[in-house]
Design a protein that fits this description.
295 residues; alpha+beta
Length: 295
């Protein structure tokens, strides 16, 4: 009986130990799996960072081929007096077409009957920049102002080209990582980094295209003034000599009639007073004469 009891106790302990051992192994396997996934994602991240650093270093040490000529953004502003604004503006439009340029803006302002102003903003291929300026000056009767500026963007262009090359190399390495990625989390992380790199490339390429456009076409602002001298003409229709003579005669006659009418009105209206004054005056004269006779 004691042997049976000892046998049951031994079997129970064995089962308990086996169960504990299985739980430990399961926990270890789960922890190992999580650590493996974490290590894999971290490895991919570190690998991408190392690729970026490596390519950027290569871009810094590798010489980027510079343009054959300096890249200059030319701008000019000219103010002139012209004899005929309409004709001058038409001629400038024809010259723009002649040199394969294009008009950005064109306006005409009529400030008064004697003064009008025309403004044009044109873009001319860089190779025709100096020639166009010379012809614009020749079109004017007088050059009032001329201002020419140039901005050298060669170094900026080379720097942007270098950065694009570096970003494209990173893009290629990330695409290679994406092909080799087996886990979903690694694929998502690489896709996010790839999208960011491609966005950076688009921004840099946009800046490069802008510099190429600005350096291949020069911007010229033309302001043309026309000052006209207006000579008044003799207009016979405004003379009307006979009509004016009749008007003046009638006006003079009316004035005389008005004066005569006023005199008549004054005399008749003041007749009692005038008669009294006449009587008084007659009496004074009679008294004076009497005194002279007595003397």
């Amino acid at each position: 009986m004691k042997k049976a009891w000892l046998f049951l106790v031994t079997i129970s302990l064995s089962v308990l130990l086996a169960a504990c051992s299985g739980d430990d192994e399961s926990a270890k396997m789960s922890t190992s799996t999580e650590e493996s996934a974490s290590d894999s994602a971290e490895f991919a991240n570190e690998e991408q960072k190392s690729v970026e650093a490596e390519v950027e270093q290569e871009g810094a040490t590798e010489d980027i081929e510079a343009p054959n000529t300096r890249m200059i953004i030319h701008q000019a502003r000219i103010s002139t007096n012209v004899k005929n604004l309409e004709k001058a503006q038409h001629n400038m439009e024809q010259k723009v077409k002649k040199y394969d340029g294009y008009i950005v803006e064109s306006n005409v302002y009529l400030e008064s009957d004697e003064t009008s102003t025309g403004k044009m903003v044109v873009r001319i291929p860089e190779k025709h920049f100096e020639t166009f300026l010379s012809e614009a000056e020749a079109e004017a009767s007088k050059v009032l102002e001329k201002n020419v500026t140039g901005q050298d963007v060669t170094e900026q262009y080379v720097d942007l080209s270098s950065r694009v090359k570096s970003k494209r190399a990173v893009e290629e390495r990330l695409l290679a990582f994406m092909k080799d990625a087996e886990k979903t989390e690694d694929l998502l992380k690489i896709s996010t980094d790839l999208a960011k790199i491609q966005e950076d490339i688009e921004v840099l390429v946009g800046k490069i295209n802008y510099l190429e456009n600005q350096t291949s076409f020069s911007t010229i602002e033309l302001t043309m003034y026309e000052n006209r001298v207006i000579i008044p003409e003799i207009e016979n229709k405004d003379l009307n000599t006979w009509e004016k003579t009749k008007k003046q005669f009638i006006t003079s006659t009316n004035s005389l009639l008005s004066i005569g009418s006023g005199v008549i009105v004054f005399i008749i209206g003041n007749l009692p007073v005038l008669v009294l004054l006449a009587i008084i005056a007659a009496m004074v004269v009679w008294v004076i004469k009497r005194r002279k006779i007595k003397e």
